[in-house]
UniProtKB/TrEMBL annotation:
The gene is aroB. The keyword NAD applies. This is 3-dehydroquinate synthase. The keyword Nucleotide-binding applies. Binds 1 divalent metal cation per subunit. Can use either Co(2+) or Zn(2+). NAD(+) binds at residues 71-76, 105-109, 129-130, 142, 151.
């Protein structure tokens, strides 16, 4: 088992990574300080892993109940969130309850937001079951639901007590979801870890082939990068914004196509190509590093072209980005592989031209 810590003073918490950690009653017992837990999961993950988790809770001597949500990004909204509150109230769950998110990023973001707001805040733990959620969404305390006009528009920062990433559950993950998770893995190499990017170039085929050692290494190095950033800047006043590389474009793709049509990781893959293209055209990223960036995203099986929504529509959707300040877009762009920066003065015409160059042909 590999162990990392998200260092946030009194609110620090462990990330445990390894095959079979889902069965670790000790890890759960150490993190849960309430007599009851409510598991939040969905109708795809529940038949696969809910019994395993409840057996672990029983061994830890913790009483549990569960709420099963409909699957998918299209359900990451108020209506579904409310079904969590309905179940908690109907079950007389009081403030001495811990929520347990069992699932991918959609479940984690919604359960986390429910925990941040139920009775003004209760503890929660993350048991991420997709590659994307193991390398990114379960760590760092961003929780949210979508609004039809924009991605993750309503949410809160609320840190979990524990992240338990069982790498064996990735065996049941569809290939398309595995590839989507690789987008966020590549992101860490691009924004701050050039050695990790080099490693990914030589291990991408192993990762696609689900080599257990390569996956565990990628998860650990991703979580190490994310936890360092979160420890430095928990609420995105500065460096944390770099974790948004490709997301301003990607979120526009997700909202513009309708939530769930493009997977988050797919939209981030195409979005990172847009960001790299703009960086190269502005003269900040060399052609050689640009080509390496696009090549790795393509080798990961991710889209390198976005849908042809039209640059004007992209810009309209991007205007809702949470990094916008005084009406001005702030974009994460690349100076090099491993060196990202926020830019707020890129001419709109240049952004539009880069988008047009990176969209599927009609
Ligand atoms: N909070 C953050 O910091 C953060 C970071 C990145 C992404 N996100 C959010 O995470 C979401 C995307 O997460 P995701 O990619 O995990 O998508 P997801 O939660 O929709 O999961 C992908 C699919 O895989 C299924 N699944 C989950 N685990 C499985 C398993 N072990 N075996 C088989 N099927 C399984 C799910 O039911 C779903 O159908 C987006 O909403 C995104 O905005 C949040
Ligand atoms: O943890 C962060 O910070 C991130 O930005 C991670 C992203 O991968 C993630 O998709 C996040 O939800 C996007 O944040 P948002 O604030 O733009 O909604
Ligand atoms: Zn993301």
């Amino acid at each position: 088992m590999r162990k990392l810590t998200v260092a946030l003073g009194e609110r620090s918490y462990p990330i445990l990574i390894g095959e079979g950690v889902l069965d670790s009653a000790d890890a759960i017992a150490a993190a849960v300080n309430t007599p009851r837990v409510a598991i939040v999961t969905n109708d795809v993950v529940a038949p696969l892993y809910l019994d395993r988790l409840t057996a672990t809770l029983a061994r830890a001597g913790i009483a549990y109940d569960s709420v099963v949500l409909p699957d998918g990004e299209a359900h990451k909204n108020w209506q579904t969130l409310n079904t969590i509150f309905d179940a908690l109230l109907a079950g007389h769950f009081d403030r001495s309850t811990t929520l347990v998110a069992l699932g991918g990023g959609v479940v984690g973001d919604m359960a986390g937001f429910a925990a941040a707001t139920y009775q003004r805040g209760i503890p929660f733990i993350q048991i991420p079951t997709t590659l994307l959620s193991q390398v990114d969404s379960s760590v760092g305390g961003k929780t949210a639901i979508n609004h039809p006009l924009g991605k993750n528009m309503i949410g809160a920062f609320h840190q979990p007590q524990l992240v338990l990433a069982d790498t064996a559950v990735l065996n049941t993950l569809p290939d398309r979801e595995l590839k989507a998770g690789l987008a966020e893995v590549i992101k860490y190499g691009l924004i701050r870890d050039p050695a990790f990017f080099d490693w990914l170039e030589s291990h991408i085929d192993k990762l696609l082939g689900r080599d257990p050692l390569a996956l565990a290494e990628a998860i650990e190095r991703s979580c190490a990068n994310k936890s360092q950033i979160v420890s430095e800047d928990e609420t995105e006043r500065g460096v944390r914004a770099l974790l948004n590389l490709g997301h301003t474009f990607g979120h526009a793709i997700e909202a513009g196509m309708g939530f769930g049509v493009w997977l988050h990781g797919e939209a981030v893959g195409a979005g990172m190509v847009m960001a790299a293209t703009l960086s190269q055209r502005q003269g900040w990223l060399s052609m050689q590093q640009y080509e390496r960036t696009v090549a790795l995203i393509a080798r990961a099986g991710l889209p390198v072209l976005g849908p042809r929504l039209g640059a004007a529509r992209y810009l309209e959707l991007m205007a809702h980005d949470k990094k916008v300040e005084a009406g001005r877009l702030r974009l994460v762009l690349l100076r090099d592989i491993g060196d990202a920066e926020i830019f707020s003065d890129v001419p709109t015409a240049d952004i539009a031209a880069a988008i047009d160059a990176c969209c599927e042909s009609a």
